């Protein structure tokens, strides 16, 4: 089976990723979530995994880069978000492959000290099995209404150099 993994500009590739997003996070699904009201950042880059034998685009991972603060110290981080595999293509290792590609891309940025993602309890085990650790401190972010404490999802961190496990993170912008 052939698989193609592309890492593309986030804005330019949104049109390709959008149908997969809509299929998984349609309005009727989103409106029931504790994060329904959250405004999200747009991805800087996107990993798109195409599996022609599985009917085309099968998996997406958004990649983010941001200078945040941790305990008031500036630090450059990477992030992943919008991790999604088409429902009929799950448990074939596609998300694992796409996350690996995203982490490689984040590591390739010399300024990055660690990576952050946000997820829901049913995915904790999935990310922990892939080397991500819970961040038990507080996370703040921007929203159109101003700064808020971000508690709608749980933060996980990934060591590039070494990620903090607690303390206070300010995302200095919209969450992802
Ligand atoms: C979570 C998700 C991206 C996983 O995609 P996937 O392509 O099926 O993942 P993979 O095939 O790489 O998973 C590989 C392994 O993880 C396991 N796994 C998948 N989801 C899991 C979960 N939620 N918890 C624990 N293990 C999980 C699979 O059993 C598989 O294990 P195996 O290799 O031993 O069989 C997919 O289920 C999805 O799109 N869910 C809906 C959207 C979502 O929740 N996204 C995450 C946002 S943070």
List the main descriptive attributes of the protein structure presented here:
single chain, 176 residues, alpha+beta, Aminopeptidase, 4 helices, 19% helix, binds coenzyme A
Task: Describe the fold and architecture.
This protein has 176 residues and is α+β, with helices and mostly antiparallel strands. The protein has one domain: Aminopeptidase, CATH 3.40.630. The protein is built from four helices and ten strands; from the N terminus they run βααβββαβαβββββ. It has helices at residues 14-24, 27-30, 94-107, 124-128, and strands at residues 4-9, 45-51, 56-70, 73-85, 114-119, 133-134, 138-143, 146-149, 154-159, 168-170. Strands 1, 2, 3, 4, 5, 6, 7, 8, 9 and 10 form a ten-stranded mixed sheet that branches. GO terms for molecular function: acyltransferase activity, transferring groups other than amino-acyl groups. This is Acetyltransferase. Pfam families: Acetyltransf_9. Residues 3-155 form the N-acetyltransferase domain.
